[in-house]
Protein 1
Amino acid sequence: WAFGGALSNESIHRLRFDRWWRAEWKSLKFPEAGTVFDYCLSSESKKLEKWSETARRSPVPIPPSGTPLAHQFVTTPSLCVVKFFFDRLVDKTQPVLLVGGDATG
């Protein structure tokens, strides 16, 4: 994520980065499906797995009845990515600033 993490999902740049990464780092065997951005290293199996698999295993907290929809989280692969890095930075007492477009919280 230090390399290419700021590239937009909607642009061709992530695909170009994916091709470059796979050509440059041939010793790292990423699955053919998806891009390098779709995978993380599983702490349990020590193998690459899709962020979507991480999202499926993440507990989904059930908000109290009457909680406005705007105050609820839906576990998605994108949220898992952010939480993964956020948790590791906070554990190391590193400051974190999350920024984003409209409606990102």
Protein 2
Amino acid sequence: MSLGPTVQLSRGSQQPGKLTRVACCTDDERNSYSDAYKTSVNTFLAPSFAIHPRTGDDYPPYNKPEAVISYLEHTTPEEEYMLVLDSDMILRRPFLVEEMKPKLGLAIGA
């Protein structure tokens, strides 16, 4: 799970703001991560949500929305806006609030 190219290209896009990696992992995975992995960029490790707690459904895509919810429940971001990317996404130019004109409570997709 490398963010090297994403981090480098995102910085090259001149995207303003901080980069925070939000990742889901089991306790075993968390214990296996090196300090370099956890500190190469600001990192928030959420528990794995791949298995639904009520239904037992095994569906890894549950991780993304639940990780964002966990991040927001356990931290207080200073930023007014948040851009959510997958690790395989590359920014070629910045997403600028002034251009996107987001409204409270509405998401913008590109």
